[in-house]
Automatic annotation (TrEMBL):
Domain spans labelled N-acetyltransferase: 3-153
Record's protein name: GNAT family N-acetyltransferase
PANTHER family in UniProt: N-ACETYLTRANSFERASE DOMAIN-CONTAINING PROTEIN, SPT10P
Record carries keyword Signal: no
PROSITE patterns assigned to the protein according to its UniProt record, in alphabetical order: GNAT
Keywords assigned by UniProt, alphabetized: Transferase
UniProt xrefs under Pfam families: Acetyltransf_1
Native source organism of the sequence: Alkalicella caledoniensis
MF term (GO), any: acyltransferase activity, transferring groups other than amino-acyl groups
Entry superkingdom: Bacteria
Length: 156
């Protein structure tokens, strides 16, 4: 099913946008504003990676800011899977790529997950991410974000 995980190109922007806007993340965080320009900048900055199938269709993507946490540690800004292929292990593959390839030179990685996104939080916990704090109303009024991290010894 997965052919490759690679840096996103400009040609991937529209499909990444579609996948995001059809997701729960899109509904909650971007119902009243478009993330298109932000995503375009993420592609230009080489922060977005796409997971492609054999037909070069995007199955999902992740967005990583290498100095996004405390200007020192990688931050997983978002991971989004196409609604047609959720539950097939693509999120785990993208997370593995994030941990083992993209951030291989770091001893800690961080992410935040909204309290509404119970499935994602459960996945992160299964993969040894630990909650280190909660931030109410950080990205969106009424949504509490769980700040989570994982140390290198649990990645290897």
């Amino acid at each position: 099913m997965i052919k490759v995980i690679e840096l996103a190109k400009n040609q991937h922007l529209d499909n990444c946008y579609r996948i995001l806007m059809q997701s729960q993340l899109g509904e909650v965080y971007f119902a009243d504003k478009s993330p298109m320009k932000m995503m375009q900048k993420g592609i230009e900055n080489k922060e977005i990676y796409v997971c492609l199938n054999q037909q070069d269709e995007i199955l999902g993507f992740l967005w990583v800011e290498l100095s996004g946490t405390f200007d020192k540690y990688p931050y997983l800004h978002m991971i989004v899977i196409d609604e047609n292929v959720r539950g097939k292990g693509i999120g785990k593959k993208l997370l593995s790529h994030f941990e083992e390839v993209i951030t291989s030179d770091y001893d800690k990685v961080f992410l935040m997950v909204g309290d509404f996104n119970k499935r994602a939080k459960r996945l992160y916990e299964e993969l040894d991410y630990k909650v280190v704090g909660m931030i109410p109303n950080f990205y969106k009024e009424g949504v509490t974000e769980y700040l989570m991290y994982k140390t290198k010894d649990t990645i290897e």
